[in-house]
Design a protein that fits this description.
- It contains 3 helices and 5 strands.
- The chain has helices spanning about 5-15, 20-40, 85-95; strands spanning about 45, 50-60, 60-65, 70-75, 75-85.
- The strands form 2 sheets. It has a 3-stranded antiparallel beta sheet with strand order 1-2-5.
- A hairpin with a 6-residue loop joins strand 3 and strand 4 (about 70-75).
C-alpha cells in the first residue's frame, strides 16, 4: 500500500494547476496550518463531500498495562478526529 506525503500532494497540485514547486509546497503548508489553527481554536473544519475534522475531549479512565496487566490511569486528553462524509465513504467503497 502506498503512502502519499506532503511532497507528493504538493507535486500533484503543481502538475494539475501549473504551480511552481515552491508555491505548491507553500499552498499545502498553508492549508494544513489553517486546519490545525481552526482545531486549536475549538472550531470544527468541514469540507463538503469530504468530511469533518473535530477535537474530542476524552475523560480520564482506568486502563491496564498490556504487558503486566497492572491497572493504570489513562489521563484526560484531547484528540483530533476525522469523520468522512457519506459521499466520501461511498466513493471509497466503490473505488472511485
Amino acid at each position: 500500500m502506498a503512502t502519499i506525503t506532503r511532497i507528493d500532494f504538493a507535486n500533484r497540485l503543481r502538475e494539475r494547476f501549473g504551480l511552481t514547486t515552491a508555491d505548491a509546497a507553500k499552498l499545502v503548508d498553508v492549508i494544513f496550518d489553517e486546519i490545525r489553527e481552526a482545531l486549536i481554536n475549538g472550531e470544527d473544519v468541514k469540507f463538503a463531500g469530504f468530511g469533518t475534522f473535530k477535537i474530542l475531549t476524552k475523560s480520564a479512565r482506568m486502563g491496564r498495562n498490556p504487558k503486566t496487566g497492572a491497572p493504570a490511569v489513562i489521563s484526560a486528553r484531547c484528540v483530533a478526529t476525522f469523520r468522512p462524509s457519506n459521499e466520501f465513504r461511498a466513493r471509497v467503497a466503490n473505488g472511485k
